[in-house]
């Protein structure tokens, strides 16, 4: 699924005007940019969450990435957080 979503990730990065510094998954690319913010992501699929966590282990350990199980209908984050 990560390979199938590559085009969507690249479209999103383009839309956000983020300049990727190397090929990879969107969350990893954004974390690598050093924007001074934590990158948070959710996935409704435990398998996809596990794969994303494996790909971003170092960024998670350093606190740059926070990945959680959840859906867009019920985000697992407090309201009004940035």
Give an overview in words:
With 82 residues, the protein is of the alpha+beta class. It has one domain (6-69). The chain contains 4 helices and 2 strands; from the N terminus they run ααβααβ. It has a two-stranded parallel sheet with strand order 1-2. The longest helix is centred in the N-terminal third of the chain and has 10 residues, at 6-15. The radius of gyration is 12 Å and the shape is globular. The chain starts with 5 loop residues before the first helix and ends in a 13-residue tail after the last strand. 15% of the residues are buried.
Broad shape: globular
The percent range for strand residues is: 5-15%
* Average pLDDT number: 78
Helix content estimate: 25-40%
**SSE string:** HHEHHE
Instruction: Characterize the main sheet.
Output: 2 strands, parallel
Distinct helical segment count:
4
**Which stretches are low in confidence, meaning pLDDT under 50 for 5 or more residues running?**
20-24
Q: Largest sheet, order of strands side by side?
A: 1-2
Structural class: alpha+beta
Number of strands: 2
How big is the Rg?
A: 12 Å
């Amino acid at each position: 699924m990560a390979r199938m979503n590559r085009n969507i990730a690249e479209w999103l990065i383009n839309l956000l005007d983020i300049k990727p510094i190397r090929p990879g998954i969107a969350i990893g690319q954004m974390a690598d940019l050093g924007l001074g913010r934590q990158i948070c992501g959710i996935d409704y699929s435990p398998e996809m969450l596990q794969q994303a966590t494996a790909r971003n282990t170092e960024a998670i350990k350093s606190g740059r990435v926070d990945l959680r199980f959840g859906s867009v209908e019920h985000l697992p984050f407090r309201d009004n957080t940035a």
